[in-house]
Amino acid sequence: MRSNHNHNNSLAEVYDLAVVGGGINGVGIAADAAGRGLSVFLCEKDDLAQHTSSASSKLVHGGLRYLEHYEFRLVREALAEREVLLAKAPHIVKPLRFILPHQPHLRPAWMIRAGLFLYDHLGKREKLAGSRSLRFGAGSPLKAEISRGFEYSDCAVDDARLVVLNAMTARERGAHVHTRTRCVSARRSKGLWHINLERTDGSLYSIRAHALVNAAGPWVARFIQDDLQQKSPYGVRLIQGSHIIVPRLFDGEQAYILQNEDRRIVFAIPYLERFTLIGTTDREYQGDPAKVAISEEETTYLLKVVNAHFKHQLSRTDILHSFAGVRPLCDDESDDPSAVTRDYTLSLSACPGEAPLLSVFGGKLTTYRRLAESALAQLAPHFQNLQPSWTASAPLPGGEQLESLSALIEALCESFGWLPTQVARRWANTYGSRVWRLLDGVHELSDLGEHLGAGLYTREVDYLCREEWAMEAADILWRRTKLGLFMTPGQQAKLRDYLKSEHPHQPNEHAA
Asked: What are the names of the required cofactors (predicted)?
């Protein structure tokens, strides 16, 4: 089941599995498959997590509101996964308490209590605290008329880093991961997929694979129709979700889950210590998923919901940044975008003797690992020596030997007395135990290279280009580090110049 990795071979290389799409589902499947002994090739037309996977509410959550749509299977699976991911990547997955202000005219207290009881007991909960009722006093950031509420646990996650860490896992288990590489066409022939690829510089090459996974997210159906010239088994509903980021709206570590008259909910989440992340919206999206942007109506909607709850009133001028993504949901003919199932659907197509195609419709950040296990269960009949599932207990890169973040930060400051504490904290939260690799051979501040601003040194940039597939400024500013919110336009330009001179685009043949 090994591929013949021979570059001089006149025929294209043969892999067991080729995965199209470098979002959370694609990298999750690639990592799982590589760890089971399959030879894996993954291509992503842009950067890892560039689209849907970095435009989430940055939560690992059970999905409290899905209970109203009777999605018990999805909620149970998601609740259990919170604990699994907390253990796998404690540097990027953190427990978070959510406060739900009670609005009696929207949902009666008994209904919320029943929902929270289910939430506490549907999934195995060891680390996360249970729910409770609250009364708000004069010191509450909420409006005076909101006197009661509820509190429960979920988790926050750095969504784009979760994707990158899974891609790193795949690579460390032998997978070949190629970003900025588009699959332009694929066809079946003699029991194999023949796959044609195009790099951003226009160069073309081909590979062959025993099985093909279509994890193209919002492009899943278009890929089947345009690139494979087949009929998609399901329609896709593209549902836009937009977020705004404002200066910190309230004190404390807790997040708020706000109910709105339209039965939807909006989160207000502490973000990067200095900000509050507010979202999300739910509306049908037509058009190119790569061009999605927040609309005027969505901005008004989010401000309105937040202003209905908090004493501190926000206006458009408070918005520091916004982002939008499209969720590719499996079309279940529902009239209401917020009621379309958040569950995932895997579609396997293969006639006897034909190379299988597995297409992924839908899915959530929280359940990516279970989705990958399901995908491999479906592909298993096509691979004789597939090893058993392994991802439930394996740490993600940086999560190895990580007892506590505070201990890691302390150890960093002790070993590198000259390191600014703020930088040590950010690095610990970003890289976990892998921070020692970033600091390998570093003895003094000057070894970190030029300071580009906001605690970003050229050594970190080099590390991200070498280890994490970063190529452009946006990859680093908005996905790998989130420093885009802290760096001035001038500092960002300095980073762009540095990348141009030191890291001109290389076709990442085997970015190892």
From this structure: FAD
pLDDT digits (tens, 9 = 90+) for 439-458: 999 999 999 999 999 999 99
Query: What are the sequence ranges of the domains in the chain?
Result: 14-51+161-235+343-382, 63-157+237-339, 405-502
Whole-angstrom distance, CA of residue 68 vs CA of residue 339: 9
- The pLDDT tens digits for 19-31 are 999 999 999 999 9
405-502: CATH topology: Helicase, Ruva Protein; domain 3 (1.10.8)
What is the residue-wise DSSP string for 275-343? EEEEE---EE--S-GGG----HHHHHHHHHHHHHHBSS---GGG--EEEEEEEEEE----SSGGGS--S
Exposed, middle or buried: residue 110 (CB in 10 Å: 0-12, 13-18, 19+)?
exposed
Q: 129-137 long-range contacts, Cβ below 8 Å, gap at least 24?
A: 129/95, 129/97, 129/153, 134/99, 136/101
Q: What is the pTM of this model?
A: 0.95
Nearest CA-CA partner of 44 in 192, 229, 189, 170: 170
